TrEMBL record:
This is SUMF1/EgtB/PvdO family nonheme iron enzyme. Residues 4-233 form the Peptidase C14 caspase domain. It comes from Nostoc edaphicum CCNP1411. GO terms for molecular function: cysteine-type endopeptidase activity; formylglycine-generating oxidase activity. Residues 369-595 form the Sulfatase-modifying factor enzyme-like domain.
Length: 600
């Protein structure tokens, strides 16, 4: 069981500095969140009038705070998979190219002797032994003035070197605001929202996205100025660590698994072991993939004649006996024909290609085919010259997508019935795509499929979807400059470009009737809209560039749709076209497709 400890400090009253109004309350609310919602067992709390503990003062002066760091962190007392958080709300200062936190008796006239260097704090925190150390600083107040550079620059570099996740309330050149109407700091307000039920930001990455959106919004609303928080999480896999397991999604766990697999591939057994332990913790100890991975690592340690980690032995002893150490999906190969059309929709080229896939048995003769999608970098969005483009398809930006597997077809009614035991579709047919499925039902399907199969399935991110749809093309459609109803199921009364009008079928059709793209994916244009994991944003400013889903926006209830459908025009079927519906939307033009983590 993971150990979760924290230190929370909030200082309003200073001996030599301008008082603050809500720093104490910020720390108190953080303490309450960590204890009541995040499941932290022990929290050391320091504020202006915090009570003595064990006969010792908890007044946040320099002597008391240094004593805690010197005594508590004298030797490791935590292990891989454990968490230690440090939260500070108060004054901070940059002096002689070093960042300092100001205790209640900190004197700006004698900083080196009365303040506490942040690099000292980070170094002592790392001694605790936990692999997840989080430093949260709402201290960029430049001693109550707006002059000069505040803390952040040196601390950020220290965080990179120490592997400490550091969350700053604002940039070094900005001021961190307290909001009278909220009776809190703007940063801590957003932080607690993001970690709590409102944001459900289970990971560092998602919390970072939420803070970058919410803090500027609060400050703009109440102060009409700017404040931009930022997060340092290096190496990059630190950003995928799960901060609040209760809000972790299958996608969060899948990303963590990807990092763990990569660490194994790099033969970094210590890191891989830490990450698999975190996967297991996020899954409440019930993830068989993680258990198998930990066994696999222990086998490698044994082969290298390395000692096992004491923390691992109970996991191995309590896990299922006799599990094979290495288990891979046998990949098959299939051939298909890819066609390209000219501007009038006439087929101008045909070529044969092949792709790899694996097959899942869903029972009763129903299978699910998952196509291997190679990783790569592509330009996401539509160029200005593309006909019928919309503003929400810009700006163009480069996105690097890791390899993954994607459903060969949209989820069919037979597949949905096999997993969910129901079929909500209007247009019945086992091989037709399931429709009239809400976003939450699509997510539920992925969860139940994952439980049944023992691998992680989820909805695609928007970037994964467009990358997979384009399959290396840059034209409006993967067929070329246009489409026809001989190739795509859409409302043929409304063609694209110079293509002729065509058939309007007024319903879905069986999947796989038309030629696939170069990756071997069918019906990525038309037939049914496909849900993505992302929250809808009105453009790509600040969008992720690593293929991950964008999980915050102005309306977190609005979810992304791609592909176009049988009922809509040709231009809505373009590779770059984006739309959205509210999560509860249930339409006969909306279905979904699944992706799976690439295991090798």
């Amino acid at each position: 069981m993971a150990k979760n400890w924290a230190i929370a400090i909030g200082i309003n009253q200073y001996d030599y500095l301008q008082p603050l109004n809500y720093a104490k309350r910020d720390a108190l609310l953080m303490q309450e969140f960590l204890g009541n919602e995040a499941g932290f067992e022990r929290i050391f709390f320091f504020s202006d009038d915090s009570p003595n503990v064990g006969g010792k003062s908890t007044r946040p002066n320099r002597a008391n705070l240094r004593q805690v760091f010197l005594e508590l962190f004298n030797k490791p007392f935590m292990e891989a998979g454990d968490n230690f958080w440090f939260f500070f709300s108060g004054h901070g200062i940059r002096h002689a190219d070093r960042d300092y936190l100001m205790p209640c008796d900190g004197n700006p006239a004698d900083i080196e002797e009365t303040a506490i260097p942040i690099n000292f704090i980070a170094e002592r925190l790392r001694r605790c032994g936990a692999d997840n150390v989080v430093l949260i600083l709402d201290a960029c107040r430049s001693l109550g003035t707006r002059a000069g550079e505040g803390i952040g620059r040196q601390t950020a570099e220290e965080a990179r070197q120490q592997g400490v996740i550091s969350i700053f309330s604002c940039s070094p050149q900005q001021y961190s605001y307290e909001i009278e109407a909220l009776q809190q700091g703007a940063f801590t307000t957003a932080l607690l929202e993001g970690l709590g039920i409102q944001g459900k930001c289970a990971t560092v990455e998602r919390l970072d996205q939420y803070l970058k959106f919410r803090v500027p919004e609060l400050v703009r609303q109440h102060k009409n100025t700017k404040q931009t928080p930022y997060v340092i999480a290096e190496p990059v896999d630190k950003s995928h660590l799960i901060l609040v397991p209760r809000y972790a999604t299958l996608a969060d766990i899948a990303t963590l698994k990807n990092d763990a697999y990569q660490a194994e591939a790099d033969r970094n057994l210590d890191l891989a072991e830490q990450l698999w332990i975190r996967v297991l913790a996020a899954a409440s100890g019930q993830d068989t993939v993680a258990i198998k991975a930990i066994q696999r690592i222990e086998r490698l340690r044994w082969e290298r004649q390395e000692p096992s980690s004491p923390q691992i032995r109970p996991i191995i002893e309590n896990s299922t006996k006799g599990i094979s150490i290495v288990e891979k999906n046998p990949l098959k190969t299939f051939q298909f024909e890819v066609v390209t059309v000219d501007a009038q929709g006439n087929i101008s080229n045909r070529r044969n290609q092949e792709a790899k896939y694996f097959e899942e048995n869903l029972g009763n003769g129903v299978t699910l085919e998952m196509v291997q999608i190679p990783g790569g970098t592509f330009t996401m969005g539509s160029p200005e010259g593309e006909a019928e483009r919309r503003d929400n398809e810009s700006p163009l930006h480069q996105v690097t997508v890791p390899k993954f597997f994607m459903g060969k077809y949209a989820v069919t009614q037979a597949q949905y019935q096999a997993i969910m035991g129901s079929n909500p579709s209007r247009f019945k047919g086992e091989k037709r795509p399931v429709e009239q499925v809400t976003w939450d039902e699509a997510v539920e399907f992925c969860e139940k499929l994952s439980q049944k199969i023992g691998k992680t399935y989820r909805l695609p991110s928007e970037a994964e979807w467009e990358y997979a749809c384009r399959a290396g093309t840059t034209t409006p459609f993967y067929f070329g400059e246009t489409i026809t109803t001989d190739l795509v199921n859409y409302n043929g009364k409304y063609p694209y470009g110079s293509a002729p009008k065509g058939e309007y079928r007024q319903q879905t059709i069986d999947v796989g009737k038309f030629p696939p793209n170069s990756f071997g994916l069918y019906d990525m244009h038309g037939n049914v809209y496909e849900w993505c994991e992302d929250v809808y944003n009105g453009n790509y400013i600040d969008a992720p560039t690593d293929g991950k889903p964008w999980l915050v926006g102005s309306d977190n209830n609005a979810k992304l749709l791609r592909s176009g459908s049988w009922i809509y025009t040709a231009w809505t079927c373009r590779s770059a076209y984006r739309d959205c519906f509210a999560r509860p939307h249930r339409g006969n033009a909306v279905g979904f497709r699944v992706v799976a983590v690439a295991l090798a």
